[in-house]
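Because discrete structure vocabularies remain unfamiliar, we turn briefly to a single example record, giving the amino acid sequence and backbone structure tokens:
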Amino acid sequence: MALDRITLAHFRNHAATRLDGARAFNLLVGENGAGKTNVLEALSLLAPGRGLRRAALAEMAGQGAAAAADGGFAVSAALATGDGEAGMLGTAMQGDRPTRRLVQVNGAEASAVSLGEWLALGWLTPAMDRLFMDSASARRRYLDRLAVALDPGHARHATRYEGALRERNRLLAGDMEPDPAWLSSIEAQMAASGASLAAGRARLVDTLAAELAKLPDEPFARPLLRLVPGGAVDESQLIRDLAAQRPRDRAAGRTLNGPHRDELEVAMHGKGGAEGMPAALCSTGEQKAMLIALTLAHATLAAKGRPGVLLLDEVAAHLDPLRRAAMFERLRETGAQVWLTGTEMAPFSDIAGEAAVWRVAAGAVERVG
């Protein structure tokens, strides 16, 4: 068990929703637009980051009948283990401060990054189907989200590196020649956090690759992973490189090398030779199968040591019965609590007897199983 006693207040189309009695499998069933994905998005905010839609906080606040008087929203859940309740997690936005996310752990104010210390949370949504065709930055965000679920400290390294990178780029793009001493100070920050960021990504890829290597090629395509560094990964070398590349970066108006240029390369095992077929060249179905394999392998790793939660939006309907059964069996083996959405119960017949089921309609939730 991971999350229970979940409440959504004025979150998107949910004015006041409560979900009690959660189980290992949890199904949200309803028509398109009913608010199923909104529940998953609310749960995704119990992890560091911007949630599964990467939306601005103001966009999540309820509208119409779901709107709060102050224009804010709140999400909370009890974090439970096999030994009982372990704590309460909550996040909110106040209408008068629409860009500030508030977080509480056991009733005390906390940082969003600290949520990762309590819960390992991941998700797979239809919007991610084009991950292998998307930009390198999208794959870096994906990689960092997976890394945070295994090592919460990774989020701090990413935040510090991005902040220092923005400041260096601001100085490089300015009209006046940057102060060398100030640049050196910023570059030292970039190198320290950047080396940790690169090491975390490399560690994740190695760990995931080892977990994937245990899996058969069927019924899900097995991905091969390779991280291509965008610059030096050693702190001392990164400092030297940043200093040496100032003239070139100044001409470009931005930093051209570093962890912000890392690339995750994915290929399909058993196709296209020893190195596999690049994922971008695989069929849509093969890409989806590799995403599912990655998600399941990561969930197995993430659920070790901390409660794990996996959010799967409209996944089962796109699989044939054989692959659905295989997915449910692997989900059982991960040890994570699973939340799934669908428009009907038929695709979930294999787990209907063991799942908690809620019917979702127009932002209202009713327990039906």
Notes: The mean pLDDT is 93. The chain is about 35% helix and 25% strand.
